[in-house]
Design goal:
With 144 residues, the protein is mainly beta. It has a single domain, classed as 60s Ribosomal Protein L30, Chain: A, CATH 3.30.1330. Helix content is 8%, strand content 62%. It contains one helix and nine strands, in the order E-H-E-E-E-E-E-E-E-E. Strands 1, 2, 3, 4, 5, 6 and 7 form a seven-stranded antiparallel β-sheet that branches. Strands 8-9 form a two-stranded antiparallel sheet. The N and C termini lie close together (4 Å). Bound molecules: zinc ion. The site of zinc ion (ZN) has 3 residues, from strand 5.
Length: 144
């Protein structure tokens, strides 16, 4: 399935407050700005992190906690609707003090040290809506 994006709408560029929750803060911005379809990217650092890994056989997310200072090497994600509200789905690559990379599905529990974000709104032909996907057990985009 796909939707056609005809143009880009507003682009929000900013910095998150120290101590905020990375996923919550990005979600709040999208909900506040009414962004229903879009792209999210960010760089920065966190003081702790929580990321998910989806166990495809068991169909459950396993969460990994990293209680250490980490760089946000790359956060990439999208915005769509889940239960009628803007929902951010993002993955994050983090770097430790040795330059080793780790990461996963961005979960609540990543505490911002500093973060610069860019959120681009898409003017799409129709909203992207998440719904239950039986094949994967995930809340995926629905429709043709
Ligand atoms: Zn994910």
């Amino acid at each position: 399935m796909e939707v056609i994006v005809k143009s880009t709408g507003k682009v929000l560029v900013g910095r998150l407050p120290k101590g905020s929750d990375l996923l919550e803060a990005l979600t709040d911005i999208c909900q506040g700005a009414g962004i229903q379809v879009g792209r999210v990217q960010a760089i920065g650092a966190v003081t702790r992190a929580r990321v998910g890994y989806y166990d495809q056989a068991a169909r459950v997310y396993n969460f990994l906690d990293f209680n250490q200072d980490l760089e946000i090497l790359a956060l990439v994600g999208n915005v769509s609707l889940k239960d009628g509200k803007p929902f951010v789905h993002a993955h994050v690559t983090l770097g430790d003090a040795q330059g080793q990379a780790l990461g996963g599905h961005l979960a609540e529990g990543c505490e911002v040290f500093a973060c610069e974000y860019e959120i681009a709104e898409y003017q799409a032909e129709r909203p992207l809506e998440r719904g239950w996907d039986q094949e994967t057990g995930l809340m995926l985009w629905q429709g043709k």
